[in-house]
Sequence to fold (281 residues):
Amino acid sequence: MSTSVIESKGYIASIEAPFIQEMAEITHHMWELGWDELNGGNVSYLLDEEEVAKYINILEPLRVINLTFPVTELAGKYFIVTGSGKYFRNVIKDPEANMGVLRVSKNGESVEVLWGLRNGAVPTSELASHFMSHIERLKVDPTHRIVLHTHATNVIAMTFTHDLDELKFTKTLWEMCTECLVVFPDGVSVIPWIVPGSSEIGRETAKKMKDHRVVIWPQHGIFGTGSTMDSTFGLVETVEKAAIVYNLIGGREIKQKITDQQLADLAKAFNVTPKAGILNV
Fold:
């Protein structure tokens, strides 16, 4: 990968920036897993200004894109996001064409493109859902940084065959793998089917983000959040693994499973608090 230097300003704009590398690697990995076919899936990553300024000229935006939804809570914040209509399999080959670094304007009504999104490309069509989710997660977790949306295959399949009550859905996932309750004691949330790319689906997802790090979109995919790329991907990966086990069991008779008492013992051993209303102990 090449590095370009903007000599007149003394900035180094490099696709070898750690945050660009992380995005390229994680999108490629999700594509390899079969979670992000065609242009499915999108990721946004909240960045520190100091970190961005090491690699990108933040004084001269390339262009401005108006938002259809104001995000005053994110005014002045920096993000790297995947582009609309871009294929995850291509990100690692040409990051600058498939991703962009943005800064939210001071009034929160537009974003300034600082790097990437070449040839007039625009941010993901799910930007509303991402920004709204960032706003809610930052209220409860100041270390929050990542919103990751992917079409995790087995999670989608599970939404066809399982009751979509989120307490029941969570309990089933907890019962599939011993690690699940430890990884997501806050459970998963589920919203109704809503047209993707809309402000409505963004608002409904954000409501759930007040209490959860995982939101499932029935017949569509999953939204996961976290403070690092590794922890966020690991969270989604664990939910997907539990869904795989559920789907493998299918309609076969279950002769033994993790009991409510065992789940409670597990929570005590790992010092986590299970979401209320699920375990009967």
About this structure: Residues 117 and 207 are 30 Å apart (CA to CA). Residues 1-11 have pLDDT under 50 and may be disordered.
